[in-house]
Amino acid sequence: MTNLSMNLVATARDHGDTVALRCGDDVLTYAEFDAAAARVATLLEREGIEPGDRVGIMLGNTPAFALAFYGILRRGAIAVPMNPLLKAREVEFYLTNTGASALFATPMFADEARPAAEAAGSRLWLVDDAGLAELIADLPAQPSPVERGETDTAVILHTSGTTGKPKGAELTHGGLARNGEITARTLLGIEFGDVVMGCLPLFHVFGLTCGMNTSVLVGATLTLIPRFDPRTAVQVIERDKVTVFLGVPTMYAAMLSVAQEFGPSATATLRTCASGGASLPVQVLNDFEKTFGCMILEGYGLSETSPVASFNHPDRERKPGSIGTPIEGVRMRVVDADGNEIATGEPGEIQIAGHNIMKGYWNLPDATAAAIDDEGWFSSGDIGKKDSDGYYFIVDRKKDLIIRGGYNVYPREVEEVLYEHPAVAEAAVVGIPHDSLGEEIGAAVSLKPGTFADPAELIDFVKDRVAAYKYPRHIWILAELPKGATGKILRREITVPEVESIR
């Protein structure tokens, strides 16, 4: 049996008294973690959730997420993680797109979760850590995980692209298990006794696989921070003696900004740091290592690749600015527009093949076929090149993806909301370079004849309809947006004005 939740069962059996999850003053051992997840599975069974059914998780970085996630897998159901900051219309789409039977959501965002669940016909549990514990307190534990196969879907993670509507990437029990095992064994060296910092969102594949699932596999302690704050992060590293830190570039930059407030002993236990989610500026890497005395290993992956595809392996030469070499069992190549592999050093689209590739996009066979060819090569949408040593470098993005503070923002999704405003004729969302976030969201808009809307109005319009990290902070009005010969709006030709003067 390949059910990913078997890792929790095995670790609880071998290391039941070891601390599995820590969040502030709350602590759960592996035995307590496994027992609670087993009661969540019973809850789902009694509510009519069958193996293969989809269950949403709209919870923050607290133990409740981990219990719900492993309880869903134990029941044989499919987890659909989502950002708790999503608005009701976005939550409703995730639920209806997957046909989710139920949703675990935090009470803090009940105003968004409740109408979405009602519209989608999904059973709703509004729970925080204490609420979930109370909900399952009197339930018996499901005896053992439901049998699942390697190619059975375990998780559906929503990503997006050119259509504006998110697509659900199906990640399998086997793919997630192997990605976690390889991460622990060959990339980060995580083992029993380690303490892993859990400040990456667990609804994101980086935090889910490399943080939580890998910790569960080896019996490490995952210490959670509900909301990232650089001072809190350093304090928790010191308090819990964190050995492994996983973060996105903005987190490393933020910790550097407060480094002078702490002595060198605060982070003395750090052994390994890993960065992903966006390119890590070489200057930030060098400054962090000099300040905190811990090497950062940079890697690369996507939701569709479970996520790790390449990494700067600890036992090989590290090249700052590079995303490293393919991980064990994974192949990468650089191809031209016709799919032909191109010469070393030349830029092209990165393609990936191996055990880490998703099963496909949920109920979207055409999109799946467009992304994965007959030989199993997945087209990443990223432009990169390979050097003579086999190291890969990201040059640009083929897709119009914006990465704001580690979160993916797809312009078309935001543009669709702008087009709903009665005065908007055309809209193009672009990324604006930002010192701490990496990129900020901006939008160029043209208005319909005879109408009026100022930037502040348009910003508020979008803000009310999408998650907080997605709405444009800067909007400027143009008479007409630049277009190509076919009439397509050319985002790359949009000139961004001085943003200081724009809301």
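Above is the first protein from milestone M3; the second protein from the same milestone is given next.
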Amino acid sequence: MKIIRGLHTVYALIIFMILFILLLPLFLIPIFRQSQFHLTGIFNRIWANLFFRLTFFPIDLEYRFNYKEKRQYVFCPNHFSYLDIPTMGLNKINAVFVGKNDMENIPLFGYMYRKLHITVDRTSLKSRYNTILRSFEAIDEGKSLMIFPEGGILTNNVPEMVKFKDGAFRTAIEKQIPIVPVTIPYNWIILPDGQWLPKVRTIKVIYHEPIETKGLTLENLAELKQQTFDTIDQELKKALNES
């Protein structure tokens, strides 16, 4: 079984690299023509769909609200696996990722990621501040955001989340746009952190009802953060009991 999973891993890495090389010229369009930023989400969706389908992972996206493509949202998913990033590329609503700058050092991919998304060095106060400003600017430009509120894969007791950071919720309140809690219930089973032999299982994503922020102030930040946490946590517990 391990040999088969090992071969599957090698195959998946090859597919990932081939798709990246083929799609890189397309990603250059929104890099050099920022007015076409919406293409980033479209190309992410193409890449993610092709990757998961060619590597034999079924996909199940569940939207529990009637989303509006032209409305802006801040998406907040749980984060337990390296599969979570390509998984969120499946989102039907175009969004810019806000995340750690670890991937900037990957040749070519790092350049693309840095140019199209918002990266942060969490060890630097200046970088964290600039990330907030860039997030505000992205909202002003009409973009939605994808932010992992845990700040990375940090939990030692999957599927329990760690305390959420403030950035996503501060941005949503300041710009008065809704938070969308997102539950990714099974990626930690498919590809646990620190492992490289995935199990084939459905890539499931649940987009919960948006939490409106109109009329909220920074005094409501803790409450908004807790409501988002509880929504995702309840779904994770439900999935754990069913798995």
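Note on the second protein: The domain at 2-242 is CATH 3.40.1130.10 (Glycerol-3-phosphate (1)-acyltransferase).
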